[in-house]
Specification:
heterodimer; A: 261 residues; alpha/beta; Rossmann fold; 2 domains; 6-stranded mixed beta sheet; 3-stranded antiparallel beta sheet; 7 helices; 9 strands; B: 299 residues; mainly alpha; MetI-like fold; 13 helices; 70% helix; 0% strand
Chain lengths: 261, 299
């Protein structure tokens, strides 16, 4: 595979990946590359196989056919924080790291990045949803990942926290430059964050578009809406065009009567 | 108060309707029909008062007992009075080496419990974690679980003689099952998503079990321990009832044979005290082993 221009070497390579559960083929011949420093969003309706794809990359499932290449330093952020309730926040951050790296100092440094260093000694059960998710983000960052796998990490958050978290993730990715694969069904979120968007449909990648919008991005605008509508249409959602007039002006037909709607 | 307002329930003011609207006596209502909600968290009692409330129940039992025996409603040959029991206790303590009996019983219960609960914990975690473990062990354990352990006492004596071994083993067997059931259930109920996350952050094998699986199943494990401790005291009575020459059970058995009511009552009270101490022990363990639960408990 060739390197994507403007980004580093590949952080994920999938070649002709097929995954079946029994008779059911969930992924059929998926090809995908994410470069280091590249932010890729994977869109798909539920049941399209996007979570399966992510689990393959995490090594939680085995491929049926094909090849999956990932860096050793890869780390997920799940939809829920998934903190271990019996470990204090800082121990959750460095969970599973080798002893010499699992220091309080490393944990606090990483917590400081997400603005939670003052909660290092709290129990996970005392955190709010947004705080817990930021701890999950710190837990990912402390591993200095070459690949960050985000599985709808904002879906369980309230709307305000989600906006803040999206901004935080965008900033962190710009600073640390890992390859990012964001799995989501939120088209606007994908367009706000990603350099490239894939649409997964019935186990295949049906669309691959580069998002050329300038950063920092905001929701809306002709280019944004155009892309958004294209992606929604690909996902099977037909929305009325925003730029159409609210009232259709009826044009007279040849026989003078209004055209039937 | 609320009479001047129309509510969809028709006539107002009855106790049921107040309850239906959540207005209790503790909540103040002004003329507008609005109330200020009563805070759920009431101020906590001091340690001393809490402790004082805890001894109210036992003291009441003692008082009723005293009253009924002192007034002659209960005859001495039915139930000895508190002063008689107290004198018997001192007599046993000073002249019949009660302390050594208590010591012997405690050692038997503790050793039996350690073996039984330890085995139950290992089996439970194995069965909870591995399908193979469940397939191999569970049916066998479920089969033995329903055997009433007193039925095994004679067999154990026939197999292991009349020394300490059959007694300790009986207690071990009896205490194994509650721990096994609770531990396996606890491990099975550990949030699979958290385990999956821990795996993807590099934990596996023993460190995964030690750092994640065991701590998260600790509530169930300690519940199992609580049952096991209770069962150990019951098993102790049986184990010491036959082929024994020391221990509280031996004392109780001898007293029962000659219908020595005061000694029987002393033994019963000793068991009760053992029960309270055992519960205190488990509570202390809970505080020590699950500090993360204290701050998020409902109460």
């Amino acid at each position: 595979m060739t390197d994507t221009p403007g980004f580093g070497p590949p952080a994920v390579v999938l070649r002709d990946v097929t995954k079946s559960f029994g008779e059911r083929e969930v992924l059929s011949g998926v090809n995908l590359t994410v470069a280091e420093g590249e932010f890729v969003a994977l869109l798909g309706a539920s049941g399209s196989g996007k979570t399966t794809l992510l689990r393959l990359l995490l090594g939680l499932e085995e491929v049926t056919n094909g090849e999956v290449l990932v860096p050793v330093a890869r780390t997920p952020v799940f939809q829920e924080p998934r903190l271990v309730a019996s470990k204090k926040v800082w121990r959750n951050v460095v969970i599973g790291l080798p002893k010499e790296r699992a220091t309080r100092e490393a944990a606090v440094d990483s917590l400081a990045v997400v603005g939670l260093d003052h909660h290092a000694d709290a129990w996970p059960g005392t955190l709010s949803g947004g705080e817990a998710q930021r701890v999950a983000l710190a837990r990912a960052l402390v591993r200095q990942p070459k690949l960050l796998l985000l599985d709808e990490p904002f879906a369980a958050l309230d709307a305000l926290t989600r906006l803040k978290m999206q901004a935080l993730v965008a900033e962190l990715v710009a600073t640390y430059r890992p390859g990012v694969l964001l799995v989501t069904h939120d088209v606007e979120e994908a367009l706000l964050l990603a350099d490239r968007v894939f649409v997964l449909k019935e186990g295949r990648i049906s669309l691959d578009v580069a998002v050329g919008l300038r950063r920092p991005r905001v929701v809306g605008g002709p280019a944004f809406d155009d892309l958004r509508n294209r992606l929604l249409a690909e996902l099977g959602v037909v929305e009325p065009n925003r730029w159409q007039p609210l009232v259709e002006i009826e044009e007279p037909t040849a026989n003078g009567a209004a055209a039937p709607n | 108060m609320a009479e001047q307002f129309t509510r969809p329930f028709g006539s107002l003011g009855s106790a049921e309707q107040q309850a239906a609207f959540g207005t209790s006596d503790g909540e103040l209502s002004d003329g507008s029909g609005l109330i200020s909600p009563e805070p759920v968290h009431k101020p906590t009692r001091s340690r001393q008062r809490s402790l004082g409330l805890r001894v109210v129940g036992p003291l009441a039992v003692l008082g009723v007992w005293w009253l009924l025996t002192a007034t002659g409603v209960i005859k001495p040959f039915t139930l000895a009075s508190p002063p008689t029991v107290w004198r018997t206790f001192w007599d046993l303590l000073l002249h019949q080496n009660l302390l050594s009996d208590i010591g012997v019983s405690l050692v038997r219960a503790t050793v039996g419990l350690a073996i039984g609960a330890g085995t139950g914990l290992i089996l439970g975690v194995t069965v909870g974690l591995f399908a193979l473990g469940e397939e191999l062990l569970d049916s066998t354990l479920q089969m033995f679980r329903t055997i009433p352990f007193p039925a095994l006492l004679f067999l154990f004596i026939a197999w292991f003689g009349i020394g300490e071994t059959p007694k300790v083993l009986l207690i071990a067997l009896a205490t194994m099952f509650p721990m096994y059931l609770n531990a396996s259930n606890g491990v099975r109920n550990v949030d699979r998503k958290v385990v999956e996350a821990a795996r993807s952050f590099g934990l596996k094998g023993r460190s995964l079990i030690r750092q994640v699986v065991i701590p998260l199943s600790m509530p169930s494990i300690l519940n199992g321990l609580r049952f096991s401790v209770g069962v150990s005291i019951i098993a102790l009575v049986f184990a010491e009832s036959i082929a024994s020459n020391s221990g509280i059970g031996y004392l109780l058995n001898n007293a029962s044979a000659v219908q020595n009511i005061p000694v029987i009552v002393v033994c019963i009270i000793l068991y009760a005290i053992l029960g309270i101490l055992a519960d205190l022990f488990v509570r202390t363990l809970e505080r020590r082993l699950m500090p993360w639960r204290r701050q998020v408990a409902v109460r």
